[in-house]
Amino acid sequence: MIDHLSLGVSDIARARHFYDAVLAPLGHRCLSADAGSLGYGSEAVQLWILKVDRPVPADPQSGLHVCFGAPTRASVDAFHAAAVAQGGADNGAPGLRTDYAPDYYAAFVTDPDGYRLEAYCKLSA
Questions:
Q1: From CA 112, how far away is CA 28, in angstroms rounded?
Q2: Structural domain boundaries in the chain
Q3: Among 35, 74, 97, 99, which is most buried by a count of CB atoms within 10 Å?
Q4: Is 70 exceeded by the pLDDT of residue 125?
Q5: Could you name the CATH architecture of 5-52+64-121?
Q6: Terminal Cα distance for the chain, rounded
Q7: In what helix (H) or strand (E) does residue 7 lie, and over which residues does it extend?
């Protein structure tokens, strides 16, 4: 349904360090970069990170978050660890979320600009 998503950030260099580390365990990398934008994906850009003057203010009550599919539970764990190591904040440690589904394994973080991110794997191991 969605071809790509764009997020505005305050510091593109900081965002590059963060998203390079966080998306690598999920099989994505920076496919496009210039002074004001970064494009991430595995084969084509699906996530644009843009340097903007007015990023969307962080609002943990908004319900807005971006969920990335993960190939394995270990990649969910690595996503979470990388996010915290790169200046993100824990917003839910890796683990099963049986209230969502019996095999819903996910982790939640907040990036340095306050965007809420999730990685999830539906495999049972």
A1: 19
A2: 5-52+64-121
A3: 97
A4: no
A5: Roll (3.10)
A6: 28
A7: strand 5-9
Give per-residue pLDDT as tens, 97-121. Answer: 999 999 999 999 999 999 999 999 9
Nearest CA among 38, 44, 53, 43 for reference residue 6: 38
Mean pLDDT of the chain: 95
- Amino acid code (one letter) for 75: S
Under 8 Å CB-to-CB from 49, ≥6 apart: which residues? 6, 7, 9, 12, 15, 16, 19, 37, 38, 39, 40
Query: Cα–Cα distances in Å, from 89 out to 7, 49, 62, 110?
Result: 18, 19, 17, 5
